[in-house]
């Protein structure tokens, strides 16, 4: 078996591992679902969100999903916030803290 | 091989440091990051003049400490560069945290290192306590008897370390001041010959390849740490064959053969001394002198201390009746020096083994002269027929 | 064991005792011999008494212990004669060469030395030819004349060559040093 993020089962043997303990394939953190670590979870309100993307920049786990949307007024593409990847969000609450108070699009609630 | 096929070499006068710097020039590493420390300062200093004079294409990085020197060297090596540095004593101590990381990342860094006592008290002279301190860091350790070997060993170390079956970092040591600052007659290979012997380095991976991003030095817990350590251990074992192979090839091409250990007049010897580094040369003269008196004495020089040549030593010592292990450091374990305990463990499972005693000598640069070595052979000659071994660990030339 | 000539240099830090030993080794190697040169291992301080050593042989030199019984001793600074035992370990038939204005007889009496004792005003020669009190190169000339351990012409050639490398842009230094060696070769007295 060759080593890839996809087959990183946690059971690889000495001969199957790459030399020097390196990771030869990117994207392994996608495999590691950390979403169930949280005690509080962020709830994002798409109606209130102004897509300033402060939360996107601050999120330590890159959990904010975005989408490019054509702005008919300017003719350019805007980047829109499309919510949170809860499979990987650890519930740190940074996003809620940095969301502008006037907007308050993210609130922390008890995790399900 | 006949002498006529040996490639012609230039005879020059060089100190150990000059010899190692010159070997580095011929290797032409991509990156050298270094910080000065007595008695190894000259190596990087001379090499930096090669950089300034355009004789090498190396990126020379002057850093603020040995910890940074090793870190920068590791970084460069992880980026796929052939990277080198040089140090001694306290410098090696400061590097100590990074040394096992270079080994674990399987980076074939080659580092000339000049053996010097470690503090305290502060001392700049030769003993092996610095190198022995780092003996379990996962680095190959090659000891040089003289400036010639220092030169030859640097070239060979690059080839050994970079061999895909090894991929471990290597220390090449000389004895501080005795070899590092002593000028001797040595032979050096033509530049193109040295270059072709060392060959081109093909790194396994590069941190800077954005087409194929990788992660280096990630955390590795109960689940995988053990599996990642095993290949290092295997590589260390495999290195023995590669070192022998490279030493043989070097001998066939250039007339100077190298092995894990050097056996000097051991074949019919009854007693022998086991030592490392520059003391071996002095001891060889003593062996010759005692042989003219009809004494069956010999010498075993351990050239490679890591990997430890267990099998070779057990075989070489099989027919001896008494041997003295010379340690130029004490492990402060209360039971002698590191070479002694390792030689003993190499022999423990052998059926035939000599009586073995340990001599700690030359700490902090204390001179080891011919008479002292003769006295040890005298004792061995008595010991071989004696019932009682007597003192196991003794200290040479100490005022008690 | 092969016959090995052992030499000890006495000087003060900065006078070039180590450099002199290196030059001798270099010249010996250039004349087809095998040689070692090493300082009394340590950090040299300006003005402090220092020693340097040579071994010269026709065969491989393997020993790496310090020199105990030098057959030749060179003293770069005569004030050391009072503070250091320059005769230590020297055999009765050894050779001593001292950089001084005094005559060899004066030192022979002062030291009570039975072997060959030579004097040469190496400092004076250096001042005249190089403009600095660097007695080490003239002492090379005196050494070769007194002991014949090296071929004079070959030694001159090799030293010139070595100086040419070191002082690429100062030809006057090279000339001065060579002249100093030649003068000392002529002037050294028994």
Q: Can you give a write-up of this model?
A:
The complex is a heterotrimer of chains A (112), B (400) and C (190). Chain A is built from three helices and four strands. Chain A is of the alpha+beta class and 112 residues long. In chain A, the strands form two sheets. Chain A has a two-stranded antiparallel sheet with strand order 1-4. In chain A, a hairpin with a 6-residue loop joins strand 2 and strand 3 (77-84). Chain B is 39% helix and 18% strand. Chain B has helices at 16-27, 41-52, 66-78, 89-95, 99-104, 129-133, 147-162, 191-198, 225-254, 279-292, 310-317, 338-347, 370-383, and strands at residues 10-15, 31-34, 59-62, 83-84, 87-88, 110-115, 140-143, 170-175, 183-188, 261-264, 271-275, 297-302, 304-306, 322-327, 355-360, 393-395. Chain B has 13 helices and 16 strands. The radius of gyration of chain B is 21 Å and the shape is globular. Chain B folds into two domains: 7-254, Thiamin diphosphate (ThDP)-binding fold, Pyr/PP domains (Rossmann fold), CATH 3.40.50.970; 261-395, Rossmann fold, CATH 3.40.50.920. In chain B, strand 11 (271-275), helix 10 and strand 12 form a beta-alpha-beta unit. Chain C has 190 residues and is α/β, with parallel strands linked by helices. Chain C has helices at 17-30, 80-83, 104-111, 122-129, 136-147, 152-166, 171-187, and strands spanning 4-12, 34-39, 49-57, 72-75, 95-99, 116-120. In chain C, strands 2-3-1-4-5-6 form a six-stranded mixed sheet, sandwiched between helices. In chain C, helix 2 links the parallel strand 4 (72-75) and strand 5. Chains in contact: A-B, B-C. Chain A: It holds the Pfam family Fer4_7. Chain A: This is Pyruvate:ferredoxin oxidoreductase subunit delta. Chain A: Keywords: 4Fe-4S, Iron, Iron-sulfur, Metal-binding, Pyruvate, Repeat.
């Amino acid at each position: 078996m060759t080593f890839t993020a996809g087959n990183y089962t946690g059971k690889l043997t000495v001969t199957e591992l790459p030399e020097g303990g390196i990771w030869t394939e990117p994207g392994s953190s996608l495999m590691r679902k950390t979403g169930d670590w949280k005690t509080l979870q962020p709830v994002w309100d798409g109606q209130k969100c102004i897509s300033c993307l402060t939360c996107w920049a601050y999120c330590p786990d890159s959990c904010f999903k975005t989408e490019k949307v054509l702005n008919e007024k300017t003719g350019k593409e805007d980047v829109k916030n499309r919510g949170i990847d809860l499979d990987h969000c650890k519930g740190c609450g940074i996003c809620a803290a940095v969301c502008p108070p006037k907007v308050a699009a993210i609130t922390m609630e008890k995790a399900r | 091989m006949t002498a006529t096929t040996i490639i012609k070499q230039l005879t020059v006068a060089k100190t150990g440091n000059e010899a190692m710097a010159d070997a580095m020039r011929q290797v032409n590493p991509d990156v050298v990051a270094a910080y000065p420390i007595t008695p190894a300062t000259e190596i990087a200093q001379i090499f930096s003049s090669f950089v300034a004079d355009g004789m090498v294409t190396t990126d020379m990085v002057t850093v603020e400490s040995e910890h940074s020197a090793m870190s920068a060297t590791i970084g460069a090596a992880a980026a796929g560069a052939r990277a080198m540095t040089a140090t001694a004593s306290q410098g090696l101590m400061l590097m100590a945290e990074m040394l096992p990381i270079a080994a674990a990342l399987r980076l074939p860094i080659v580092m000339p290192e000049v053996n010097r006592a470690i503090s305290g008290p502060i001392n700049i002279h030769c003993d092996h306590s610095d190198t022995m301190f780092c003996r379990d860091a996962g680095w190959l350790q090659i000891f040089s008897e003289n400036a010639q070997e220092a030169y030859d060993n640097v070239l060979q170390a690059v080839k050994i370390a970079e061999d895909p079956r090894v991929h471990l970092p290597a220390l090449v040591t000389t004895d501080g001041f005795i070899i590092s600052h002593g000028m001797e007659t040595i032979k050096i290979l033509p530049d193109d010959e040295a270059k072709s012997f060392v060959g081109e380095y093909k790194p396994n991976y590069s941190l800077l390849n954005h087409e194929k991003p990788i992660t280096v030095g990630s955390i590795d817990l109960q689940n995988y740490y053990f599996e990642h350590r095993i290949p290092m251990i295997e590589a260390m074992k495999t290195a023995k064959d590669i070192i022998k192979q490279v030493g043989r090839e070097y001998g066939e091409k250039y007339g100077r053969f190298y092995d894990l250990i050097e056996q000097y007049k051991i074949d019919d010897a009854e007693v022998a001394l086991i030592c490392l580094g520059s003391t071996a040369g002095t001891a060889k003269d003593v062996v010759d002198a005692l042989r003219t008196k009809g004494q069956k004495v010999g010498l075993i020089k351990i050239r490679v201390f890591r990997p430890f040549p267990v099998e070779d030593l057990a075989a070489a010592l099989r027919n001896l009746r008494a041997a003295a292990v010379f340690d130029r450091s004490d492990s402060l374990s209360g039971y002698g020096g590191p070479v002694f305990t390792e030689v003993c463990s190499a022999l423990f499972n052998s059926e035939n083994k000599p009586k073995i005693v340990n001599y700690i000598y030359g700490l902090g640069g204390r001179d080891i002269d011919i008479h002292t070595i003769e006295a040890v052979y005298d004792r061995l000659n008595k010991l071989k027929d004696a019932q009682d071994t007597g003192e196991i660990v003794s200290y040479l030339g100490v005022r008690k | 064991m092969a016959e090995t000539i052992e030499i000890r240099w006495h000087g003060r830090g900065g006078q070039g005792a180590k450099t002199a030993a290196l030059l001798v080794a270099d010249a010996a190697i250039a004349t087809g011999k095998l040689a070692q040169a090493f300082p009394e291992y340590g950090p040299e301080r300006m003005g402090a008494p220092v020693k340097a050593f040579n071994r010269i042989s026709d065969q491989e030199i393997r020993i790496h212990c310090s020199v105990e019984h030098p057959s030749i001793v060179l003293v770069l600074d005569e004030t050391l004669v009072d503070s250091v035992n320059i005769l230590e370990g020297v055999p009765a038939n050894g050779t001593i060469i001292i950089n001084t204005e005094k005559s060899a007889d004066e030192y022979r009496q002062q030291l009570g030395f039975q072997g060959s004792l030579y004097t040469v005003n190496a400092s004076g020669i250096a001042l005249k030819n190089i403009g600095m009190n660097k007695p080490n190169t003239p002492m090379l000339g005196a050494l070769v004349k007194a002991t014949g351990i090296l071929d004079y012409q070959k030694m001159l050639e090799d030293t010139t060559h070595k100086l040419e490398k070191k002082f690429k842009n100062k030809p006057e230094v090279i000339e001065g040093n060579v002249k100093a060696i030649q003068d000392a070769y002529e002037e050294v007295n028994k």
